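Notes continue from the previous slide.

Worked example: a multi-chain complex. Inputs as given:
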Amino acid sequence: MLLEKIEALLQEVNNLHAQNAEEIEQLRLKYLSKKGEINALMADFRNVAADQKKAVGIKINELKQTALNKINELREAQAEADVTSEDIDLTRTAYPISLGSRHPLTLVKNQIIEIFSRMGFVLADGPEIDDDLHVFTKLNFAADHPARDMQDTFFIEQSNPNDVTKNVLLRSHTSGDQSHFMETHKPPFRILCPGRVYRNEAISARAHCFFHQVEGLYVDKNVSFEDLKQVLLTFAREMFGPETKIRLRPSYFPFTEPSAEMDISCDICGGKGCSFCKHTGWVEILGCGMVDPNVLEAAGIDSKVYTGYAFGMGVERITNLKYKVSDLRLFSENDTEFLNEFESAN
Ligand SMILES: [Zn+2]
């Protein structure tokens, strides 16, 4: 009878569980305290026949030991759970959330826009996927110009070689924006076209299959090359510092005549010559010129009444010069070590 009772308690003890420290204490009191179930067994133990005392005694000890172990086990589990929940300290200062920074190309593009905005230029936009008509034909590109070659430009569609509107391509310059703008606007206008452009180039430290341009166009009566030069000098000094000098070298572009490349004085050596400027004291930053009359006529603008100038620069080029970045692949690799360098810029 007593053995059965001990057996039942043993099973009960083995299945004990508790939600918290208080419940564990209740279990301890129920089984192991002076007035607990196990001590109560001792009263019955006295009445056990002498020949059974040994077996019953062992069983009671087993029960007591099991109860002790079980209670300790519950206490340990509870302590572990407590540590885990205490670990989440809601009052502790949060880890600092790192703020992103503007991409260096965006910083420089915005600065270019800001400088020309102060001189009256307004933004004009156009599609990145455009047709031959707007990217080449209206801009006076000869029919056999190499830019119209599949090897030079990313053509998406060339369904009819004789119809330029059927030739779809990734624009190779933002000048296409100017073609679109001139279709719907009459002079005078002064526009700035920033955007991404594409060229079929092998990717290297100095060339990429895509880059960014900002092009400007001003058309009005009596616009002269002098105006162009003054605007570009102002830009160079705003961008690279008030001591910056510029020089223009004759060049060729299909859409301007005359055309020029503009250099600025090397701000590393101050014009004396160093490895950065290839010992010339000058670094090239943009192309420019007077709008070719053919371009104005193609847009329905009377070239006898109106003249204009245009210029275009690579944002990567300006950024390289401003921040001395030697490899333009860095701009598109999303390396945060590199991008973090510009956190405090501007
Ligand atoms: Zn230099």
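Summary box: The chain is about 40% helix and 20% strand. Strands lie at 122-123, 129-131, 155-158, 167-170, 189-198, 210-220, 246-253, 256-265, 282-291, 307-314.
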